[in-house]
Every structure is written in C-alpha cells, then in structure tokens.
C-alpha cells in the first residue's frame, strides 16, 4: 500500500475463554463493513493467528483485520457515522474487546 | 496478499519511556532483514502508529512491521538461522520488547 495511506488495524487478543468465529468475520462482518464504508476503503485484509515468536507458543491475537484509507479524513468521515452499527455486530463473532490501532503506512 | 500466505508481524507496544527510531528501522533494519532472508520474503510493510480507537488516544503500538512468506517452512528455514543477528539489531532503534505474531492470510 502506498506510503502515507492510513491503516486501521483491529486486533483481537487471545486469552482464556476467548472465542472468535473466523467464518462469520470473513464472510459476514468484513463484507458488511465494506458495504457501509463504500469507496472510502481502498483495501482490506484479514489474518488468522497461528502462533507467537517462541516455537509452539500461542498466537498473541486470535485474529487481525485491517482497513486502508486514503487519508485520516476519509477514515473519520466514513467510519464515524457507522461506528455503532459496526461495533454492535461484534458479539455475533467474538467475546473479545479488540485493540484498535491507527497507523500511517511507511513501507 | 494471497490466501494462505504466512504473515509475521512484529508489534512494538507504546508505553512510558518507550522509544522507536522509525528512520533507522525503515532505512537500516528492514533492508538488513530483507538481505538476510532473501527470496524467502515475498513482501514487507512498515507502519507508524498515529493513534488508538478513541479520539485523541495514544497508539497502542509505536510501530508495526510485517513480513510475508509463501509458507511456514520458508519462514522457519530462513528466519531461524538469522534470528540472533536480527534480534541483536533491536537496541539500535528501540528499547521495546516486541510482540511477535505469526498469522495466516485469510483475505
């Protein structure tokens, strides 16, 4: 993705009793977010946690989702009005409170 | 990136007194890792933390770096022999102990 692009990462930390339905997330939640945000989103990725740095260790995150926006204004103007709808879908696929990170693409 | 690709994420959590030299990381560390791992790496991205989910909040991570590999075997066979060299470069750009996540690309 081009330098300067805004990347919004949603990280779902693993932990005892934590659940995450990757099927629902990939096939229902992410497409729903795409529909709501429309052209503001210029890219989306989803990753499934396999492990950590130490051999055999648990993945720190069960899943990670990333959305890319042209700039911070496009993110704010598209996400803001839809935030409640998007967040209210979370209980349908996870009991995890995600960590949200807004970043600027450097490389 | 294609479904099934392996993504290795290195996340640098923010916190009091934590420092991260993005210039060194982008221009020295990441190219060094690229040289060491060679063709095993099929993609690399770097992101600079801007903020968190709540307006005005600090970014959970000062920086994130991601490397992509065709499969887990390619990652292990290329990273393993170079892990010590790579990790020993960390004090040159940060005082943070990074979180490492190995994921499978779903979307």
Describe this structure as you would to a colleague:
The structure is a homodimer of 107-residue chains. With 107 residues, chain A is α+β, with helices and mostly antiparallel strands. Helices cover 27% and strands 34% of the residues of chain A. Chain A has a four-stranded antiparallel β-sheet. The relative contact order of chain A is 0.34. Strand 4 (99-105) of chain A pairs antiparallel with strand 2 (41-52) of chain B, so a sheet runs across the interface.
Main-sheet strand order of chain A equals 2-3-1-4
- Helical percent range of chain A? 25-40%
Beta-strand level of the residues of chain A, as a percent range?
A: 25-35%
Could you say which structural class the secondary elements and strand pairing of chain A correspond to?
Answer: alpha+beta
> If interface size is counted as residues with C-beta under 8 Å from the partner's C-beta, which chains form the largest one?
A-B, 32 and 32 residues
pLDDT averaged residue by residue of chain A = 97
**What radius of gyration of chain A results from the CA coordinates?**
14 Å
Assign an overall shape of chain A: globular
**Series of H and E elements of chain A:** EHEEHHE
Largest sheet of chain A: 4 strands, antiparallel
Low-confidence stretches of chain A: none
In terms of quaternary structure, the protein is homodimer
Q: How many beta-strand segments of chain A?
A: 4
């Amino acid at each position: 993705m081009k330098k300067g692009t805004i990347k919004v990462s949603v990280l779902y930390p693993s932990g005892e009793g934590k659940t995450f339905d990757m099927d629902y997330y990939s096939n229902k939640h992410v497409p729903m977010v795409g529909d709501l945000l429309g052209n503001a989103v210029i890219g989306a990725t989803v990753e499934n946690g396999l492990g950590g740095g130490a051999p055999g260790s648990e993945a720190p995150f069960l899943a990670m989702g990333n959305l890319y926006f042209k700039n911070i204004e496009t993110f704010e103007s598209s996400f803001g009005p839809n935030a409640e709808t998007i967040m209210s879908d979370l209980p349908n696929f996870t009991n995890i409170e995600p960590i949200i990170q807004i970043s600027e693409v450097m490389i």
